[in-house]
Amino acid sequence: MVVQEATLLEVATRTLLAQPSASLGEIAEAAGISRTTLHARFPTREALLAAMAHDAMDVIETVYAGSGLDSDAPVESVLGRVVDGILPLGPRVEFLLRERSLDTQTSVTERYDRLDAPLIGYLERAQSRGELGREIPAWWIAWALLGTVHTAWEAVADGRLAVRDAPRLILAILLNGIRP
Fold it and tell me: What's the fold here for domain 49-176?
């Protein structure tokens, strides 16, 4: 059986999120391949983790590229597309936030540090157009948006929030705050 690399990385991500100490053999078993096949693609656990991180960043970049961050479209519609694109990624992206061993891999950390530049750039332009206030730095708005998406993932996983309600709540808290 030939397993596509993207599918293998998704299975590895789900497996490691559920069981962080899973061995490469357990990951291979979950993917329906032999340990030898897994080792042929990823000779070490570190190589697999780096590939998983780059895969997660690839999907985020794809969402960003399709969200209109390079446009001057209204904030609500652009951020709505960002949220709609990132929300279903849940575990694939959450892996980046949890896997501390990636902190020592320069290729991963350097790319991660640049990852949100398109979002931040869009937010800065929205601030200069007067669509968003300037009292909060654009990087903070980006982090707040992504942090709220993370909170929504957890609420959906806990059964507290329906997936279909998450985008509305995320944008409401970000754009309107909590005041009446």
Answer: Tetracycline Repressor; domain 2 (1.10.357)
Three-class DSSP labels, the chain:
CCCCHHHHHHHHHHHHHHCCCCCHHHHHHHHCCCHHHHHHHCCCHHHHHHHHHHHHHHHHHHHHHCCCCCCCCCHHHHHHHHHHHHHHHHHHHHHHHHCHHHHHCHHHHHHHHHHCHHHHHHHHHHHHCCCCCCCCCHHHHHHHHHHHHHHHHHHHHCCCCCHHHHHHHHHHHHHHCCCC
- The pTM of the full predicted model, rounded to 2 decimals, is 0.86
pLDDT at 99: 76
154: its two tokens? 């957890």
**Which amino acid type is present at position 135?**
E
> Can you state the angle between helices 106-115 and 45-65, rounded to 10 degrees?
20
Q: What is the pLDDT of residues 127-155, one digit of tens each?
A: 999 999 999 999 999 999 999 999 999 89
What ranges do the domains of the chain cover? 1-43, 49-176
